């Protein structure tokens, strides 16, 4: 196999640096990571996708090497700024969980820049949290208030990596450790004073029928019931959307089943 090369850099956008990495040649493909990780969660996919596409990944605000701005910012504007800085007019966009929410918001804010969407275990702007998720956030907040960052990190691993139907012992320990090591340094980092997030209005959940690009929806069968229900809602409301349910995996689909995930995404993109 040929040696893999990538280019890293920082883009100054919305008043703060945004860390990114680019590799490969061909049609642009943008990756948006989950809210319990950073751009390293795509390590298995990045070199493989780079064989077929010009692949771009970056750390979202407050994750990895991208600090929060000190003023108002909109997560859905960062993809536009990054792609424009790279001279890219349009890209395929893959987002997982919180990254999926940003991908969807980006598609509404800048529809001319999105060629297709792959939404994995996605969140959606405007959706109300279930009692299960609200209870989780309350437990996480209580742990952080006690200064128990390790405990809060483990709560996230049990919720999002293990899922409600598995014990930690049933999950690949390397996946758990990788997510732990990405999440632990950032879980207790608060928004700086004045760094208010600007949310898309009207919210995405009220506008799903407006999506007019090819869309692939993916979710693991061991994920939260909320995610399975939400994915079905998107499949029902996004015209022509394809839905794939991955067996024996929870929220972090691409990390637990990297080869299957890569195969499905590449097949979807090749058929466009």
Structure description:
By secondary structure, the chain is of the alpha/beta class. It has two domains: 7-126 and 191-270, Rossmann fold (3-Layer(aba) Sandwich); 131-183, no CATH class. Helices cover 35% and strands 18% of the residues. An eight-stranded mixed beta sheet has the order 1-2-4-3-5-6-7-8, sandwiched between helices. Helix 4 (131-145) runs antiparallel to helix 5 and helix 5 crosses helix 6 (173-183). The chain starts with 6 loop residues before the first strand and ends with a helix.
List the helices and strands and how they pair.
Elements (H helix, E strand, L loop, with lengths): L6 E7 L2 E8 L4 E5 L12 H6 L3 E5 L19 H8 L5 E6 L1 H12 L4 E7 L10 H15 L3 H14 L10 H11 L31 E6 L4 H13 L4 E5 L6 H4 L1 H13 L2
Parallel strand pairs: 3-4, 3-5, 5-6, 6-7, 7-8
Antiparallel strand pairs: 1-2, 2-4
What is this entry, summarized?
With 272 residues, this protein is an alpha/beta fold. The protein has 2 domains: 7-126 and 191-270, Rossmann fold, CATH 3.40.50.1820; 131-183, no CATH class.
Radius of gyration, rounded?
Answer: 18 Å
CATH T-level topology of the largest domain: Rossmann fold
Total E-strand runs: 8
* Main sheet strand line-up: 1-2-4-3-5-6-7-8
Instruction: Specify the overall morphology.
Output: globular
CATH architectural arrangement of the largest domain: 3-Layer(aba) Sandwich
Total helical elements: 9
Overall helicity: 25-40%
Beta fraction: 15-25%
Query: What does the main sheet amount to?
Result: 8 strands, mixed
Unreliable runs: none
Class from helix and strand fractions: alpha/beta
- Rounded average pLDDT: 96
- CATH homology-level superfamily of the largest domain: Alpha/Beta hydrolase fold, catalytic domain
Count of the separate structural domains: 2
Output the CATH class name of the largest domain.
Answer: Alpha Beta
Distance between the termini: 27 Å
* Order of helix and strand elements from N to C terminus: EEEHEHEHEHHHEHEHH
